[in-house]
Amino acid sequence: MDNLATTWVGATAKQISRAVRRGDTTAVQVVADHLEQIGISDPSLAAFRVVRGGEAITEAEKVDDQEDLANLPLAGVPVAVKENTPVAGLPTWFGSAAARSAVAEEDHEVVRRLRGAGAVVVGVTRMPEMGLWATTDGPDEATRNPWALDRTPGGSSGGSAAAVAAGLVPIAHGNDGLGSVRIPAACCGLIGLKPGRDVVPRDLGVDGWLGLVENGILATTVSDAALGFSVMAGRTPAKLVQPEKLRVGVSLRSPVAGVRPDEPNREAVATASKILVASGHNTVTAEPAYSTVVGLTGLATWFACAYQEAEASGVDLKKLQPRTRRHIRLGKLMIKRGWAKQSQRDAWREKSIQFFADNNIDVLLTPALAATPPPADGHAAGSWRSNMQVNMRYAPYAAPWNIAGLPAIVVPIGLRPDGLPVGIQLVGPPDSELLLLAIAGQFEVANPWPRHAFV
């Protein structure tokens, strides 16, 4: 733990909230510790777009002044919020000065819930322009992976993942439209949960990115992920229940034709399968029915979302990055030709739900990524084609489950030979978020992972 500012940096959200509620420390002290650590580490990471500093201390004082802390499950916990989600008093950046909106007058509902539980927003974290990419960089700044500064923390919730992996906050908010929580979780060795449809308030962009996007959580422990999820879902935090004997489908097949997982990602799935069996579960081969139609539906929706977001915001397209402009142009074409149809997304959702019944499985296990995280730099200035190739070749496994609206989680499994984390993805039917978290808890007990990569 080199460069740690004080003892509260690196503590879990549950440890911090318990200590604040008991009076063992104060929210002000905890937040001050984390702000100091952000000052030490963030210059090399660029995880944050804005650090709230004095405002966060004032917010922490209000937590300490509350008469009854017992009902605050996140009392004094520093959190980060992804920059496309309104935080009162700050602009909503959307990954780009060109796309930035006016100062928000009120919090997004998930931010309101986090604050209502006693959490303190220390800042907003960086994302790629308009959240379109699985790398987090811009023309002047690249967010870096704490495990290897020359590598990306993923995207689009890359800043949130980097902040958690470096111990700058114990948990962070992210949102996931085509893998934007799970991909950074896999890159940075974190738990990353994308809830299913209509579980956590969405209210992002035009119709929630045509139904693709969900607000989720990034954390270093399963209990912290479960706590953050419960708060954002408006639920009373509950202890996870040990799952009974499950039947787990296993698939290495990539949703993108011609892309195969590399050896470390295949080994991660093999290791996960052994852990599941040792935990009393059964594993069977089960191949989702990825098809050309599903792939084209995903692409058409991705493009269409970019166009609709640009139209709704009135952004000056000339000020956007070339890769983003082309994405928007393609989106206009998709909508004009009727290729981004809700009926196609609905059909895949129905087929995906039926997949669990047809194969008599409770959850599906897949790789989280297909390859090592790409370099941190150069993508914003690169061509649209090169960005598409990078995205689809290293991170193809997440997107189908956004189209289906099913819950999915990434769980760390270990380290690759290059020293970067490697993880797996678990997907479940509707309303299986707590089951996925409980299975992740079994992995955590059987195969503990390093919680931080301090820089």
Automatic annotation (TrEMBL):
GO molecular function terms attached to this record: catalytic activity
Residues annotated as domain Amidase: 30-437
Family to which the UniProt record says this protein belongs: Belongs to the amidase family.
Name listed for the protein in its UniProt record: Amidase
Lineage summary: Bacteria, Bacillati, Actinomycetota, Actinomycetes, Micromonosporales
